[in-house]
Automatic annotation (TrEMBL):
Coiled coil feature spans: 111-154
Biased composition regions of type Low complexity, renumbered to the chain: 11-24
Domain of life: Bacteria
Annotated spans, Disordered: 1-54
Keyword annotations from UniProtKB, A to Z: Coiled coil
Protein name (Swiss-Prot/TrEMBL): Uncharacterized protein
Length: 238
């Protein structure tokens, strides 16, 4: 039983690892590693991908350190500069001589640029040779004479059509009408005869005897009677 009651010896305590401080300069001074990376390259979407190994070089830490120092110096310089307002800037106007000088320089530049533009847009027109012009004219004359001869040699056959056939065709047309078919030709005989004097006298005279609003003829006696009745009834109203 004593065998099982024997205590095991405690292991010796190991020393705890001590954290090593990191020096920032060690990071900046670490040489930049060169990394190799394999990528698939295709000339176009229809080609097959071809593996290609690229060597990627990281940015030099020393260059980053220099750029950061320059940036911090610029920020510090701007921070120490006083704030400028509109009063800190000059308010002097531009002199007349300065304006004239600028205008003169602009006009000189315009003349130079304008001449350059004209020279660049001039078209070279070559002079036509006399022999070539004569050949073109002869070809045009020959073509014209050939067309005139073709028209002169063409025989056009015309057949004469009688008046009876023309009248028959006109009557058969859907839009052709005979004179008696028009309303204005129905009384052509009455209009053609000489008018009667009595009919001429009626022109411009309108008979209102049959009108519904006809009041008829009023004689003098009836009118005088109505006037007396009106004065007897309404005469004292003034």
């Amino acid at each position: 039983m004593a065998l099982f009651n024997k205590k095991k010896p405690e292991p010796a305590a190991s020393a705890a690892p001590v954290a090593k401080p990191v020096n920032p300069d060690d990071i900046w001074n670490t040489p930049s590693p060169r990394r190799r990376q394999t990528v698939a390259v295709k000339e176009s979407k229809y080609d097959e991908a071809v593996p290609e190994t690229l060597e990627v070089e990281s940015v030099d830490p020393e260059m980053i350190k220099t750029k950061m120092a320059q940036l911090e110096a610029e920020l510090e310089e701007k921070k120490n500069q006083p704030v400028k307002t509109h009063a800190d800037y000059g308010t002097s106007t531009v002199g007349r001589e300065e304006i004239i000088d600028a205008q003169t320089e602009y006009e000189k530049l315009y003349v130079v640029e304008h001449e350059k533009y004209i020279r660049s847009h001039q078209e070279e027109i070559t002079e036509a040779k006399e022999q070539g012009v004569a050949e073109k004219m002869e070809a045009m004359y020959a073509e014209h004479e050939a067309k005139v001869a073709e028209v002169e040699n063409t025989k056009f056959e015309f057949s004469e059509v009688g008046q009876a056939e023309v009248d028959k065709k006109l009557v058969d047309l859907p839009y052709a009408k005979r004179p008696e078919d028009y309303a204005e030709y129905k009384d052509i005989a009455a209009v053609a005869s000489e008018p009667d004097e009595a009919e001429i006298e009626k022109l411009g005279v309108i008979d209102h005897s049959e009108d519904p609003d006809n009041i008829g003829f009023v004689d003098e006696e009836f009118l005088a009677k109505k006037v007396e009745e009106f004065e007897a009834k309404y005469g004292d109203r003034k």
